[in-house]
Amino acid sequence: MSLRNLILLLCLIVVAYTSVAKGQTNRAEDAAAIRAHIESIFQAFIEGDEQKIFATHSEDWRGFLEGSRAPIKGIDEYMRANGIEWPKPANAEKPGPYFPNGTTYKVDDFDVQFYSPDLAVASFFGEFRRNETTLRRFRIMDVYAKRKGGWIQVASHTVVDPEWRAAQMAQPLTISPEIRQRILAAREAVWKAWFANDRATLEKLIPAEAIAIDNGQEGWSDRATILAGAQRFAESGGKLVRLEFPKTEIQVYGNTILIYTTYVYETDVKGNRATASGRATEMFVRRGNELVNVGWHMDSGK
Q: What are the start-end ranges of the E strands in the chain?
């Protein structure tokens, strides 16, 4: 190889190396820009800055959010899927923060892959935190496009982290007065429906897999046995006179509700009154918007 050709080859190598190094530098800058953009979205949600949320997503946005039943198409659907009234009425008041004071965010296991100069996919875990407690943790894959010289989110698949959700469902939930009242109303509805032989309500509130252990009964009851018992009580002329639950404690784990209670009821069968009392453990499960009674265990408390 001549000296001239050797010098030319070395120059080509230097140019190629410089180009690769420059490209890597640009990618690092782009990755940092995308991460900063993602973190600004987390902060916008904390502050309830709906205009910022709108501005950080493209008009042709596509994807799925937690709970999506169909692909979300467009920025307006995206905003509404996040519980934001959109487009905003002209006289709408500015919302306050979406999270309690002191809420922060955390992004970890962050990775960006570039598939063209103007297309990138970011994968990461993101969470909202307060007082070292994780309020919500998400598993996210965002698609970013470079438009008008800047990166913007054009698509995403966002779901609650399954491992975090499983851990949360194993912890007891705080029961608000409203939730407690709803649980107690569902429990009372089952008892009253049984004494009234309200077949439609019983079939709605007691699922096919129900198992019951009743006070003084050797065998265990399934749904058919429970319904038959209600019918026999009605055919005997029985009526419920009084129903009370002197003491009730409730535990909620995910969609499962455990009720520990004492009970007193009085019945009238053709003029003959009788009073029964005891203890019961009742199990309910939330399915959709309904609470169904999947089982119970009653005893006399003696």
A: 57-64, 72-73, 104-116, 119-130, 133-147, 150-160, 211-213, 238-244, 248-253, 256-269, 272-287, 290-299
Q: 179 is written with which tokens?
A: 């939730």
Comparing CA positions, the residue from 218, 223, 192 lying closest to residue 206 is: 223
For residue 119 the two structure tokens come to 């297309």
User: Which amino acid is located at 187 in the chain?
Assistant: R
Tally: H helices and E strands in the chain = 7, 12
CB of 292 within 8 A of CB of 206?
yes
Task: Kindly give the pairing relationship between strand 211-213 and strand 290-299.
Answer: parallel
Please compute, for residue 52, the number of CA atoms within 13 A of its CA located in the half-sphere on the CB side: 16
- Model confidence, pTM: 0.69
Contact assessment for residue 123 and residue 117, using Cβ atoms and an 8 Å cutoff = no
Q: DSSP 3-state assignment of 89?
A: coil
Cis geometry, peptide bond prior to residue 117 (ω within 30 degrees of 0) = no
For the chain, list the domains and their CATH numbers. 3-169 (3.10.450.50), 177-299 (3.10.450.50)
Task: Summarize pLDDT for 56-101 with one digit per residue, the tens.
Answer: 999 999 999 998 999 999 999 999 999 999 998 888 888 888 999 9
Scored b (16 or more CB within 10 A) or e, 108-147 reads eebebebeeeeebebebbbbbbeeeeeebbbbbbbbbbbe
Is the CB of residue 38 less than 8 Å from the CB of residue 141? no
Q: How does pLDDT run across 235-275, given as a tens digit for each residue?
A: 999 999 999 999 999 999 999 999 999 999 999 999 999 99
Measuring CA to CA, which residue among 169, 142, 145 is closest to residue 158?
142
